[in-house]
Write a structure and sequence with these properties.
heterodimer, A: 329 residues, two-stranded antiparallel sheet, 14 helices, globular, B: 294 residues, ABC transporter involved in vitamin B12 uptake, BtuC, 11 helices, 70% helix
């Protein structure tokens, strides 16, 4: 137990895991609550803002799948968000693909990128893994900076939302909102399923004690690679959807600051919790909205939150709540 | 005169720039390696502290009229002192946790430091004059060598080798290496290991501050000067592996040269060549050229 409490994932799991495995009741309540919130909130809150929150929530959940359940800290997840964004924007605008095909194409590109970079990154662990993913993402950034189809600093602008399946016009805000909602919930439920599956259990075993998992006969590299690809693919799904929502794919989404932001969202919400990244994304996006007027202070505030979270608030918001309830969330 | 169809002036000019960049890669990756050896954390704030070194020199000149040579001593002391405060007040609380928390904390610190300076100075950058003793250049026959650039290369080689000598050949270095292997045992022998950790972190970031002062007259002093550099230095560290002090020095200079050559022969790839080399090294020797897999 002493060893467990030192791992990066939320220590909640270590303390509650005796009665945690089957007890997903609170998680079910939370899921219903979350669904109700995203259905009802558009009545009170600007829908585009909520769509942004959902895109980033999915992005953060995908990131959390890797760090929270696999123990691998990626500092380059922006490369998946940005790649899928560029690919789907290009497919929708230049090739004239329908939105669902554009999203599938963008997500597929991120999956491919995840496979290639994953083969390299999983060769080292811990701190090295973080540095390698950061460096690979910077390489991807320079590729997009120089290659002509991304239009450099301008980005791909005016991406048409088009008609879903050739029928439903996504320029209708309600239809767009419904699509983002379905994508976000589909992604979230998939992650839920992965976490609670035998695969997810092996992943957690590798996080806690990799040599032990190896000695039990698991090919840990394979599990880590699959987790990495899944995480990258889902991050790509978020990026492709985001490009359609904002009708824009730009360098911001591939830059290292974006990789840092997703780490921050997950940390604030709660590493290794299912709902933490969603809460964290909502908090950080809201904060950015309110702080947008004061420009560079956003960076300083984000840095300060990083420091505070690491020093005094390592469980994150949802992690603290789960600790109070003594149930996993 | 031409080599491979490239004018020698251009070739040697780029090689010189490569060596200059290599000097900074070596200084920074050396500091990272020294810190990592004892603290087991990767200092993400290293680029920001390098920038802080450059700004300290700039402010000393602009506000107090203190010139380059004094800055070369004072700025690393200032940066080192700030580093020691960071270590005592924050990093020291994280040693019992997963080492990744140290990375996250220093990442946050980097955002704060860079954000503060961007608020203060904007992102345009400030010029810093070359010290009068080092203006001008030498005609080497095949190229002109600016005196200041020659000085940067010589100074960083001397500082790097001095650091290597101190760690590998002195009693203090022996304590340090012993504490890297087994801190509990060294503590049991009556060495104050926590103080040693503080001083080591201070020394590591002072190297970054020193690099910042040397960079000030070459690049503009700007808040984002350390941002991209730190990511490249991370790749350098992955390529070299952090097992050996001499290894990180050699890797730093070597990769600077390779980057310079790439600028001559295939400029499009000059931004990414180090990352590509990192990928190749990971495939062939995952522990890095001079590293040992733990």
């Amino acid at each position: 137990m002493a060893h467990q409490s030192t791992t990066l994932a939320a220590p909640v799991g270590a303390k509650t895991h005796l009665h945690a495995q089957a007890d997903t009741s609170y998680q079910r309540y939370a899921l219903v609550l979350m669904a109700a919130a995203f259905v009802l909130l558009p009545l009170a809150v600007y829908p585009v803002f909520l769509m942004k929150v959902m895109c980033f929530a999915l992005f953060a959940c995908a990131f959390n799948l890797l760090i929270g359940f696999g123990g691998l800290l990626s500092f380059g997840h922006a490369m998946f968000l940005g790649t899928a964004g560029y690919a789907s924007a290009h497919a929708a605008k230049v090739w004239g693909l329908t939105p669902e095909l554009a999203i599938v194409f963008g997500t597929g590109c991120s999956a491919l990128l995840g496979w290639v970079t994953g083969l390299l990154a999983i060769r080292r662990q811990g701190i090295y893994f973080a540095m390698i993913t950061l460096a690979l993402a910077q390489m991807v950034f320079f590729f997009y900076l120089q290659t002509p189809f991304t239009h450099g600093e301008d980005g791909i602008q005016g991406v048409p939302r088009g008609k879903l399946f050739g029928v439903i016009d996504l320029n209708d805000p309600l239809a767009m909102y419904a699509l983002v909602f379905v994508v976000f919930f589909g992604g979230f439920l998939l992650i839920w399923r992965i976490v609670h599956s035998p695969f997810g259990q092996v992943l957690k075993a590798i996080r806690e004690n990799e040599p032990r998992a190896t000695s039990l006969g698991y090919d840990t590299d394979r599990y880590k690679l699959v987790a990495y690809i899944l995480s990258g693919t889902l991050a790509g799904l978020a990026g492709a959807t985001k490009a359609l929502v904002f009708q824009l794919a730009s360098l911001t989404d591939v830059y290292w600051t974006m990789s840092g932001e997703v780490v921050l969202m997950t940390l604030v919400g709660g590493l290794g919790t299912l709902f933490g990244p969603v809460v964290g994304a909502a908090v950080i996006i809201t904060m950015q909205n309110y702080l947008a007027q004061i420009g560079a202070w956003v960076t300083i505030v984000q840095g300060a939150i990083f420091v505070l979270c690491v020093l005094a608030f390592r469980r994150g918001i949802v992690g603290e709540i789960a600790q109070l309830l003594r149930k996993p969330l | 005169m031409e080599i491979f169809g490239i004018p020698t002036v251009a070739l040697f000019g780029q090689l010189l720039i490569g060596l200059i960049n290599g000097s900074f890669y070596a200084l920074l990756s050396l500091g990272l390696a020294v810190i990592f050896g004892l603290l087991n954390i990767i200092n993400f704030a290293h680029g920001a502290l390098y920038m802080l070194g450059a700004f300290t020199a700039y402010l000393l000149l602009a506000k107090l009229g203190i010139g380059y040579w004094w800055s070369l001593i004072l700025a690393p002391i200032v940066v080192g002192a700030i580093g020691m405060i960071i270590e005592r007040t924050m990093l020291a609380k994280l040693y019992k946790l997963d080492h990744l928390y140290g990375l996250l904390l220093t990442f946050g610190l980097a955002l704060i430091i860079q954000g503060l300076f961007r608020n203060w100075f904007g992102s345009s950058g400030e010029p810093y004059p070359i010290p009068s003793a080092l203006t001008g250049s030498q005609n080497l026959g095949f190229m002109f060598l600016p005196n200041y650039r020659a000085w940067v290369i010589v100074a960083s080689v001397v500082v790097c080798l001095g650091t290597w000598f101190m760690i590998e050949r002195t009693r203090l270095g022996a304590y340090l290496r012993a504490a890297t292997e087994n801190p509990q045992l060294v503590q049991a022998f009556g060495i104050n290991v926590p103080r040693m950790i503080t001083l080591t972190y201070g020394f590591g970031v002072a190297l970054a501050g020193f690099g910042g002062v040397m960079a000030a007259p070459i690049y503009q002093v700007s808040p984002q000067m350390g941002e991209h550099l730190i990511i490249v230095v991370f790749a350098v560290v992955v390529i070299g592996g952090m097992g050996s002090i001499l290894g990180s020095i050699v890797t730093g200079f070597g990769l600077g040269l390779i980057e310079g050559l790439t600028k001559v022969f295939y400029p499009e790839a000059s931004n990414t060549v180090i990352f590509v080399i990192m990928a190749i090294v990971l495939l062939i020797k995952p522990a890095g050229l001079f590293g040992t897999q733990k």
